[in-house]
Amino acid sequence: MTAAQQPPTPRASSVTLKIVSIVFYTFIAFFCIGLPIAVLPGYVHDQLGFSAVVAGLVIGAQYLATLLSRPLAGRAADGLGTKRTVVLGLIGVGGSGALTLAATLLHGEPVLSLSVLVIARLLLGAAQGLVGVATNAWGINEVGAEHTARVISWSGIASYGAVALAAPMGVGMVQLGGFNALGAALMALAGVALLCIRRKTSAPLMRGERLPFWAAFGRVAPYGVSLTLASIGYGTLTTFITLYYLDRGWNGAAFCLTAFGVSFIVARLLFINAINRLGGFTVALACMATEALGLALVWLAPSTAFTLLGASLAGFGLSLVYPALGVLAISQVPSASRGAGLSAFAVFFDLALALAGPLMGAIALHLGYRWIFCFAALLAVSGLGLVLLLARHARRAGH
């Protein structure tokens, strides 16, 4: 009994190594997302001459495409296989890089450049959906459902860590090589990942009941709505922090994304086992309260130092919301429909990011950039209230 409860360290290390070898492809995909994220709003606004709302829509287009691709990603991961689904996603990343390069070469024709750029963002969003769902399903199938929280946590570390590293690198890349360097970098990174995955063995397909996407969606929806309310703050920060800094006359907006990502990773590394010890509801409530405090601090910040502190608190808080609610959500679907369950739950995160651009862009247009972080904090508090209701319902059902 003791041995079963406390597996030897080599086994735990082996599980972690397997997970990391799979979420490596998540890291590559999100690194490609992070490279342009701090510079594209400025490119659309300053170079092409479009409004802040249009800049928000361009960023949000990627998240909308990810959202719409989730049913396909779930079916592909469950039916086609996880490795093949990841390969398709990486090919999409490379294609998005080619279109991004074409868009920047056409900067003299603003409408045409914007149109090609939107298509590139849509393709990148669909690729993100394929890679994200497939790597999570691949990892859980490989190491077992009992390690679901660990797989989701490491996937988040890979994705947010990639954005944290890539955002300032993208700024430096544009300063040194111009906007054309972005597309070329995306193509190169996708090519490297495709070379690495060739000899990787995929986990076998799971057998058993396969739920349609919408059936899985209905089962995970109560937890997903809470995730949406909590995650709009992240979409707001990534989409508008550059323009917020410009509006305040500050420099170094990319470091806010770095602060968010570093805090996110530190929290997951320090508290990766908290969900199993304390329960998903308890962890989600504590984290959402911390995130709301961080967003409020960004709203009220008198200087960049306070903004960085707020971004750090927001990242620290959001860190375990996804895995905490995700473990509860995925337990509602059968193992053979794990891809459908993961994709359905991820839809709610995508929805938050798709809504953040146009919604907060409209608020910024009427009230100013500061107030978008106030609204994001209020939405996080609303999500916290919903989690409280779900926890009470779960306790009553348990009795």
Give the fraction of residues assigned to helices: over 70%
Mean pLDDT: 85
CATH architecture: Up-down Bundle
Q: Which structural class should the secondary elements be placed in?
A: mainly alpha
Q: Uncertain segments of ≥5 residues (pLDDT<50)?
A: 1-10
Task: Name the CATH superfamily classification.
Answer: MFS general substrate transporter like domains
Largest sheet: none
What's the CATH class, please? Mainly Alpha
Q: What is the total tally of β strands?
A: 0
How would you name the oligomeric state of the polypeptide chains in this document?
A: single chain
Task: Report on this structure.
- The chain crosses the membrane at residues 20-44, 50-73, 85-106, 118-139, 151-171, 177-197, 220-246, 252-271, 278-300, 306-330, 342-363, 369-391.
- Its main location: membrane.
- Pfam families: MFS_1.
- The protein has a single domain (14-199, 211-398), classed as MFS general substrate transporter like domains (Growth Hormone, Chain: A).
- The chain is mainly α and 399 residues long.
- It is 85% helix and 0% strand.
- The protein contains 16 helices and no strands.
- It has helices at residues 2-5, 9-37, 40-47, 52-80, 82-105, 110-143, 148-177, 180-197, 213-248, 254-270, 274-278, 280-300, 304-318, 321-330, 338-367, 370-398.
- Mean pLDDT is 85; it is low at 1-10.
